[in-house]
Structures are given as C-alpha cells and as structure tokens.
C-alpha cells in the first residue's frame, strides 16, 4: 500500500496494473489520453505491453485478441472513440471475452467539446451496440473510488467473462486527490476460470454459474472464438433454440450476480423527505447541496449509485423513500428515466445541469430548487 | 465386406465434424487451404512448429471462414478486424504462430487500414489473402480488386473504380515477405506458406482464387471448370517478379512469385529491445 497524489486517469491505470493488466491497446483521444501515456511509461516496467494502434477499432479488437491469448487487457477512450468501438464491444459480449474499457466522458454529440465534461454517455455504455446484452458499468466519483471500482471492473470481467465499463468523465480524469494504491495481495483479485481438462472441452459450455471456463490460445484446447450466434462448441447455430439459449444466458449470467455487482452509497436516507439522486463527478456537488439543504431544515438525502448498469431495482425501491425524488445529472435527464420507471408510484423530477464544467453549488441548487 | 474408413491425410488439421463446408462447388478455397495445411504439416513434421502454438484468425466472408474449419485454436471475428485481433494475440503471447486468413474484401477493403499498419510495423503475423475479385458471401458486390468495367450486383453499369494492387501496396511498406500464388498453382501456395511459417515480421501471401458462383457466372464463365481453366491460362510464374509486374491484369496475365523476401527485425524483436 502506498499513498500518492494522483488524477482519476492515473488511479484507473494504477488499479488496472494492480488487477494484473498485461496488455493495453489504445488510440489517443482527449480526455482519456494521459491514462494511456501513464501506462506507456509504467506497464512495460511491470511486464506488460502498450501499443498505440491505428484507430479505436483496431484497439478494441486487439485487446479482445490479447484477452483470448490469456492476458488481462484494457483500453480507454472518450466520446467518438467509443462510437468506433461499438462493434468490437459486441464481439467481446458474444465471445465472452473479459476486457475493461475506461470511457472518459466528454461533451458531444460528435466531436463535441473534447476538453470538457458531461455525463451524456450513460445510455451509450448501456445500449452501445446491436443485439441484446448487459454490460456492467461503474461510475466513480473520486480518485480513490476510480481505483477501487477499476479493481472491481477487472474482477467482474474475469468472473463473468464479459466486457466491463469504467465510466469516468473529464472532471474526474483530471482532478488530483490523495490516493491509496493497493498492491496485489492487499485486495481481492479474481482470475478467470480455466477448464479442468482438455477432454471434451467446449469453449461456450457453461458451468452452474452460467459462465464457461475459458482456455487461452496456445495450450492445446483447440479453442474456437466465434462471433456468430453459436452453440457450446462455438459452431454457428442459426436456429431459434440456440439463439434463445445463448442470449438468455449472456444476460442471465450478469443479472444473477446483481447483489454482488450493484454498489451504491446513501447519505441521510433514513428520514429523507427529499432524495437527490446523482452519480459520478456531479454527485460531489449534489452531496454538498444535500448537506446545505439539511442545515436549512429540509430533510434531504442523497442516493449515489456506483454501479449504473445493471441497476438493482429492488435496492432502489427499498432505499429511496421520500416524498420527492430529484435526479441531478449533467445531461438532458437520462438516469431519471429509469428512476422514474422503477419508482413509478412516487414523484420523480429531472434536474439536468448541462454544463461543460463541474457545476457550481449555486447551479445545482437552482436546478433542484425549482422542484422543492 | 471389409469396412472402408474414408479419411484424408489432412483430416487431422480439420474440425471434420463441420465437413461438408459451406463452400460452393468449384470454389478455390479448398485447394488453397489444402496447400496451406500441407505446408504447415511439413513444419510440424520437422519439429519447427508445435500444432498447439498455431492460432488461425479470420474476419468475415467465405475465405475468413477457413479459420473455423481448422482444428486449431481459432477465432472468427468481425469484418475487417482479423489483423488487429491477431496483433493482440501475438503481443499477448509472442510464442504463438498467428495466421490471418481472409478475402480481399475483408483484408484490403474494410480492413485495409489495418493491413497497412501491420505491414508498416512488420508485426510478426502471417496474412493469407484470397483474391476472387468480388464480395462473394454477400452475393457478388464490387470488391477493391474487381477489374475496371466489370458488372457486379452493385456496379450494374460496370465498375468505374480501378482495382487495388495489394501486392504493390504491401510491398511498399516494411513487410518481410510478399508473395502471390494462385489456386491453379497449389504447390506455390504450399511452398510460400511453408517459407512464411519459418520467417519473422509481417508475411503476406496473396492467393488468386476462383469464385465460380458470383464472379465467374456473372462475367460469363458458365461453369467452374471453365473459370479455373481461364485463370490457369493467365497465370505466369516468375521467381522474382518486379513490382511493376504486380498489377493483376486479366488480359495481360497475372504474375505470381515472391515479390519481397527480407529478414528485417520484426515488431516483437523491437519490443524485446533487440535489433538483430
């Protein structure tokens, strides 16, 4: 364990190395680039490889290849870069390849404002690519949490053989805070299951937990990585039965673990009359507002999901109790749609801030007080 | 009566439970794969390559599907993205022998940018590109190699685009090996593939192939044998052809041979800090 002073991007990079990262492929894009630059310096010293590919499409496909060759791999990108990676992330879903993608949100659509923040992409990481799937996504609010949730992201990807998102933003990427870097051995690191025997090995035959053991290339398992809808052997299976079975399992292996996946933090929720819901960097200002409202006599609370997808609907229903729910986010009101759906019997209000900077307390207060 | 077991000497290289393949009668891919497997067999027999270390990667298309008929570690990935996937595999485990197979659409069309950069980096993988002048699996649309003027399903008034000379393009970069063979000369496919397996850096083999169904039939060659014979007539072997001879010209002929042979340090050599 060592105490350092670091940015959110550095925290993600350090956590990735603690989790056992051995391969990083990426393409520079603001505000994610210095994450790659940090790894380019550090990872080779710890026995890994960093390569700047020709584009984001190559980067995502390269990390999928590397993961299938048996090493933990990741990439990081922002807005337009993630748009380019969409198809590749779908490949990781259907081939059940563990990878981690740090998506550092900037303003959009399109090229947007490269150096400025928003929280516009939370649905992008949810519904990025074609087909039916759930990709676990974690949204830290501090440098320390960026570290901790990156460890969790790697653990999730390895445990469930799935791509996982770290959803950061330009604010968190570049804010510097004290960070406790945990070394391997000081924190639980999960490794992917490998098959017990070569005899009868099928790359997509799941165990009880719905996750198939994963053999790396080069060990004689005759693995078949297949992007088409496939059976347990990896053979193309364009029939209703196998399609339904595969897609159901790909989703169920995630939802079945929701108690483990879903993390949140609650402040002053027990007697809250008004619950503010916020996540990521914006939640820092909303937390200050919740405290201010409380000191002015309003019973305000804050519910802060650290896991954005999948949402734990039962937990949200149990923990968010209050007359009014106000969802504060730096976009046109996206998570609010789900909160409204889940808490359909309560008053849910959208308080979008739409700000290229970290919103001030005054701005957040204005957005919220219209509903008080 | 004695039981006759029908096996083929190359069966050990194939996922035989997937046979028959989906390839059309008269398709050149079987000849190409057979020749490649014989080259690989020689390397395995002489002990220079372990079958467990071989990984086949294909993108999308008829040719790319060769990757899932072989009884090796293999991956059938996205259209155009076999090369970056293979780059990741090789960098994660440099001990592996990584082979990319695909058609000209997959490798030089949608995947063209990756081809350039793999050659520029001299990355230590082998790419075998089957050129059949058309997008075959999707039904006969224009490809980057379709000759000028040819009618395809998306150029019904004749192809207005001059074709890409892939051998010349790859040769202009840092690839250590660039060769061209044809399915009418399977012994050269075998020889070049065998040779490439023993080299480092980026190795590129173009195999001129036949698609009797959606190319031959559409240009008036009414059966596979006719198409094969027409191609055979046009193929000329030269031991060290010049790059000026690399253009594929149906009228003047198609020159096969080894265009580039060199032994520059591969990408992995640079990564390891060596420059031998």
TrEMBL record, chain A:
GO biological process, one term: response to oxidative stress
Record's keyword annotation contains Glycosyltransferase: no
GO MF, any single term: 2-oxobutyrate synthase activity
Residue ranges of domain Pyruvate:ferredoxin oxidoreductase core in the record: 272-348
CDD domains per the UniProt record, alphabetical: TPP_PYR_PFOR_IOR-alpha_like
Domain Pyruvate flavodoxin/ferredoxin oxidoreductase pyrimidine binding residue range list: 14-239
Record carries keyword Cell cycle: no
E.C. code: 1.2.7.11
Pfam families with a match to the protein in the record: PFOR_II, POR_N
Annotated catalysed reactions: a 2-oxocarboxylate + 2 oxidized [2Fe-2S]-[ferredoxin] + CoA = an acyl-CoA + 2 reduced [2Fe-2S]-[ferredoxin] + CO2 + H(+)
Keywords: Oxidoreductase
Self-association state and partner proteins as the record states: Heterodimer composed of an alpha and a beta subunit.
Protein name (database record): 2-oxoacid oxidoreductase (ferredoxin)
Automatic annotation (TrEMBL), chain B:
Enzyme class, UniProt record, top EC level: oxidoreductase
Presence of the UniProt keyword 4Fe-4S in the record: no
Species whose genome carries this gene: Thermosphaera chiliense
Name listed for the protein in its UniProt record: 2-oxoacid oxidoreductase (ferredoxin)
Domain Thiamine pyrophosphate enzyme TPP-binding: 67-207
Gene3D superfamilies, sorted: 3.40.50.970
SUPFAM superfamilies the UniProt entry points to: Thiamin diphosphate-binding fold (THDP-binding)
One Pfam family it belongs to: TPP_enzyme_C
Recorded GO MF terms: 2-oxobutyrate synthase activity; pyruvate synthase activity; thiamine pyrophosphate binding
EC annotation from Swiss-Prot or TrEMBL: 1.2.7.11
Catalytic activity: a 2-oxocarboxylate + 2 oxidized [2Fe-2S]-[ferredoxin] + CoA = an acyl-CoA + 2 reduced [2Fe-2S]-[ferredoxin] + CO2 + H(+)
Keywords: Oxidoreductase
Keyword Oxidoreductase set for record: yes
Assembly mode: Heterodimer composed of an alpha and a beta subunit.
